Amino acid sequence: MDSSASVVLSSPCAKLPNLEGNHGNIEKGGVAPFIDSAFLQKQSQVPTGFVWPEADLVSAHQELNEPLVDLEGFFKGDVVATENAAKAIRSSCVSHGFFQVINHGVDLNLIKLADDHLDKFFKLPVEEKAKVKRCPGSPYGYSGSHADRFSAKLPWKETLSFAFHQGPNPVVADFCKSKLGKDFEETGRVYQKYCEAMHNLALSITELLAISLKVDRMHYREFFEDAHSILRCNFYPTCQEPSLSLGTGPHCDPISLTILYQDQVRGLDVFVNNLWQTVRPIQGALVINIGDTFSALTNGMYKSCLHRAVVNSQKERRSMAFFLCPRDDKVVKPPEDLLCIEGMTRKFPDFTWSDFLRFTQYNYRPDETTLQKFSNWLLAADNNKHL
Ligand SMILES: C=C1C[C@]23C[C@H]1CC[C@H]2[C@]1(C)CCC[C@@](C)(C(=O)O)[C@H]1[C@@H]3C(=O)O
Ligand SMILES: O=C(O)CCC(=O)C(=O)O
Ligand SMILES: [Fe+2]
């Protein structure tokens, strides 16, 4: 990735980039208005700011042939089924940090309802969406192509992100009601329920991950019990020249664990065996990918999944990514019994999620090397402490 695009603009309120360029003329005035799908689809060609480097645009080579992990036996306490699921998960996570689950226990009607409510927000006039615009330095709220943060390699998408943690107050429902008004009360209730279901599934997945790693099966579940997670809703409009742009560029999620719902429009690619491979959408399945923070919790034994989202010229695409994140001040380090079993030396320094999140929002645009860059940054800061 070119370094110019990797450093987040220091002034978060930077002017929107001038998208003038040989890939399309922007409405007069040079600086684009607030960018959303309606704006993007009005452009006769892909604006320069949205054109990605060729290396990131390599087409997917094949369809990912990934076993579906059936969770039914695990939920029923079936020892053999649990062992089989753990074995499948271990093999995928050691290799590329990605698997899919079925019989996950999340009500499929709730997932459908959450998908249906996406357009209620994303089809609003941009001025309405701007009312919940993402604040500088925060991953929460609305963003149109991150055009307020980056000046190149802009993603062909709009996003809406909610903060979620379990507790007496329905934080997601409250956010929608207070920020978007009465018309979005039902939407808020749907996403509140969706986040609660995702949180519970995420804790179950962390238990199965612990079993697969042969550590105390409650270790990670207890670590994430009081998680402060993020629900990221993605809307990918159709693109005039899909071979030039990307919905979400190649990256590893800095968070711990992602539970992704993708609709029936292909778009998710995963990098496996040095090839981009497309993930065929499977009705009723949920995608699970290991993020940087969980990889660090396994001392790098489980890979943080390198993935991207491509766009197309025919169909809009929608996805919802539930990002499991530990409470801010929890120290991220692998369990002692894992280090003993594997006789490992530490691969990453201790860190907190709040420091890592801040790094991704202020210092470094997440890509495929975020965790390594963050580790180097921490160690350099430690080494310079005495200066
Ligand atoms: C901590 C986060 C930063 C991002 C949202 C969550 C987890 C995934 C990250 C992201 C999607 C990785 C690709 C780049 C990014 C800027 C994006 O395209 O949205 C990242 C998110 C973000 O920084 O808002
Ligand atoms: O939309 C997708 O399929 C992937 C989105 C993603 O990777 C993300 O939001 O982190
Ligand atoms: Fe991602």
What does this structure look like?
The protein is an alpha+beta fold and 387 residues long. The chain has a single domain, classed as B-lactam Antibiotic, Isopenicillin N Synthase, Chain (Jelly Rolls, Sandwich), CATH 2.60.120.330. It is 35% helix and 18% strand. It is built from 13 helices and 15 strands. The chain has an eight-stranded mixed sheet. The protein has a five-stranded mixed sheet with strand order 1-10-9-12-7, with no helix packed on it. Mean pLDDT is 91; it is low at 1-32. The structure holds ligand L2PXNNRO, 2-oxoglutaric acid and fe (ii) ion. Fe (ii) ion is lined by residues 251, 253, 307. Residues 139, 146, 155, 230, 232, 248, 251, 253-255, 323, 357, 360, 365-366 line the site of the ligand C=C1C[C@]23C[C@H]1CC[C@H]2[C@]1(C)CCC[C@@](C)(C(=O)O)[C@H]1[C@@H]3C(=O)O.
Question: In a nutshell, what does this entry contain?
Answer:
With 387 residues, the chain is of the alpha+beta class. The chain contains 13 helices and 15 strands. The strands form three sheets. An eight-stranded mixed β-sheet has the order 2-3-11-8-13-6-5-4.
Total tally of structural domains: 1
- Summarize the main sheet: 8 strands, mixed
List of distinct ligands in this structure: the ligand C=C1C[C@]23C[C@H]1CC[C@H]2[C@]1(C)CCC[C@@](C)(C(=O)O)[C@H]1[C@@H]3C(=O)O, 2-oxoglutaric acid, fe (ii) ion
Q: Which homologous superfamily in CATH is the superfamily?
A: B-lactam Antibiotic, Isopenicillin N Synthase, Chain
Instruction: Write down the secondary-structure element order.
Output: HHEEHHEHHEEHHHEEEEEEHEEEHEHH
Shape: globular
Q: Whole-number radius of gyration?
A: 20 Å
CATH class: Mainly Beta
Q: Please tell me the CATH architecture by its name.
A: Sandwich
Cross-sheet strand order for the largest sheet: 2-3-11-8-13-6-5-4
Q: How many distinct helices?
A: 13
Our estimate of the beta-strand percent is 15-25%
